């Protein structure tokens, strides 16, 4: 009001000075507001909850207060607004189900896929399908949150959920670090941050313990046979590639551009892996008959020295908390001497 009064009539020298001072204050206030908005935009991009009330106060825009208490941005860049902590959650992938259970949610999980077999309690949950999730089944469960994994959700399913305004959060873990950060983000979304933080801390500790044991150990050239016929393996864009490295291996497909590339036998013969890693199990495992065919490639070092690692696919192929178990399994199989009692490492 005062500044308006000063500007609206011919001002005296003292008043002009005070006008400039007030002008500078307004400018710094606007700048501070812009900085805060930027800072909040950043936090939001990292999947951190954005509290509207705080934003209103910090940016000096009280009219923004109380619009939506919590906003999250998923890996597809989509914003979801949650007015309250979700209590009816549908999972669209086994990895998501494992994260939700690890966060100690139970009755809040109202629907899972047919492949969600861990923990045991997941098997008793209503099923929403698998490769072709049944949108009607999802909607009938009246979820206030649907959580999926990129690549496991068809675009049409996502579009329908969006149309129906069902908050859907999609994660796309490309690294082990992404998995850890997704667990923490989910912790915030479902109101279980302390559990999530504790879980992530213990996962980090176990990862570091593996690193310590393998410090200075010779690296082994290996091939991860994700799918045998046709041969599909993992490239640097996949979290599994990173686990192979952490376990003291060198992925022979490290030059691949795709995260899950098709690979040909000529390249395998040329790169000559010292170890063949076979995921095993009912869901996505290499059956014994296909492993036997690999054993016919007698010129391969892995076959000559019979170095095969069989690992439950559920430990390595899921972007969830058990990835650490997969890492430990693989590291121990590749470098048993580093994990023996006598090795001395803790
Ligand atoms: C690459 C791959 C993966 C990658 C997924 C990549 C990603 N998006 O994150 C990894 C290794 C992580 C994976 C995991 C699993 N997979 Co997989 N996977 C494949 C594989 C070898 C190739 C698919 C591909 O690249 N196709 C080519 C591209 C161009 O087509 P696309 O449609 O875009 O492919 C995508 C989907 O297939 C998707 N995807 C991969 N696995 C699964 C599983 C399900 C249930 C769904 C809905 C989608 C899906 O990821 C692909 C790449 O983005 C196929 C085998 C095959 N022969 O096709 C199995 C396959 C699709 N997977 C399968 C299964 C069962 C799983 C798991 C459930 C196994 C497990 N032990 O837990 C897990 C679930 C992981 C989770 N998040 O919980 C089955 C599906 C069976 C079915 N009836 O639908 C297949 C057919 C293997 C098999 N022979 O049994 N998988």
Task: Describe this protein's structure.
With 346 residues, this protein is an alpha/beta fold. Helix content is 43%, strand content 12%. It has three domains: 2-39, no CATH class; 58-172, Nitrogenase molybdenum iron protein domain (Rossmann fold, 3-Layer(aba) Sandwich), CATH 3.40.50.1980; 217-343, 3-Layer(aba) Sandwich (Rossmann fold), CATH 3.40.50.1980. The chain has helices at 2-8, 13-45, 52-59, 94-102, 135-140, 155-163, 176-189, 193-214, 239-246, 265-271, 288-294, 301-304, 313-316, 323-334; strands at 70-73, 79-82, 89-91, 109-111, 145-149, 168-171, 220-224, 249-251, 275-280, 308-312. Residues 1-16 and 29-68 have low confidence and may be disordered. It binds cobalamin. Residues 93-95, 115, 130-131, 149, 151-152, 226-227, 232, 260, 281, 283-284, 313-314, 317-319 line the site of cobalamin.
Offer a few descriptive terms.
346 residues, alpha/beta, Rossmann fold, 3 domains, four-stranded parallel sheet, 14 helices, 10 strands, globular, disordered N terminus, binds cobalamin
Helices and strands in order, then pairings?
Layout: H1 2-8, H2 13-45, H3 52-59, E1 70-73, E2 79-82, E3 89-91, H4 94-102, E4 109-111, H5 135-140, E5 145-149, H6 155-163, E6 168-171, H7 176-189, H8 193-214, E7 220-224, H9 239-246, E8 249-251, H10 265-271, E9 275-280, H11 288-294, H12 301-304, E10 308-312, H13 313-316, H14 323-334
Helix pairs in contact: 7-8, 8-14
This protein binds cobalamin (B12).
């Amino acid at each position: 009001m005062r500044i308006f009064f000063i500007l609206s009539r011919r001002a005296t020298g003292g008043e002009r000075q005070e006008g400039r001072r007030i002008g500078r204050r307004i400018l710094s206030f606007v700048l501070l507001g812009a900085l805060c908005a930027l800072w909040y935009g950043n936090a939001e991009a990292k999947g951190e909850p954005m509290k509207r009330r705080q934003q209103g106060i910090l940016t000096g825009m009280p009219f923004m207060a109380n619009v939506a208490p919590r906003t999250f941005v998923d890996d597809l860049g989509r914003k979801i607004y949650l007015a309250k902590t979700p209590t009816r959650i549908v999972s669209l992938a086994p990895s998501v189900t494992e994260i939700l259970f690890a966060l100690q949610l139970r009755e809040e999980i109202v629907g899972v896929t047919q492949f969600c077999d861990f923990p045991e309690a997941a098997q008793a949950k209503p099923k929403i399908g698998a490769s072709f999730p049944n949108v009607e089944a999802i909607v009938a469960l009246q979820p206030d949150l649907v959580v999926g994994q990129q690549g496991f959700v068809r675009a049409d399913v996502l579009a329908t959920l969006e149309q129906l305004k069902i908050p859907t959060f999609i994660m796309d873990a490309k690294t082990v670090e992404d998995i850890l950060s997704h667990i923490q983000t989910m912790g915030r979304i479902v109101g279980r941050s302390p559990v999530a933080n504790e879980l992530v801390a213990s996962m980090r500790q176990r990862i570091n313990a593996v690193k310590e044991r393998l410090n200075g150990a010779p690296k082994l050239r290996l091939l991860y046979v994700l799918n045998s016929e046709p041969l599909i393996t993992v490239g640097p864009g996949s979290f599994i590639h990173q686990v192979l490295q952490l376990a003291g291996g060198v992925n022979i497909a490290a030059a691949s551009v795709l995260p899950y590339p098709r690979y040909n036998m000529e390249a395998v013969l040329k790169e000559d892996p010292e170890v063949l890693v076979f995921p095993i199990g009912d869901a996505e495992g290499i059956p014994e008959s296909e492993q036997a065919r690999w054993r016919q490639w007698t010129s391969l070092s892995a076959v000559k020295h019979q170095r095969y690692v069989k690992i439950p696919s559920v430990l390595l192929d899921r972007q969830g908390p058990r990835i650490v178990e997969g890492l430990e399994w693989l590291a121990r199989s590749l470098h048993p001497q580093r994990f023996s009692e006598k090795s001395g490492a803790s």
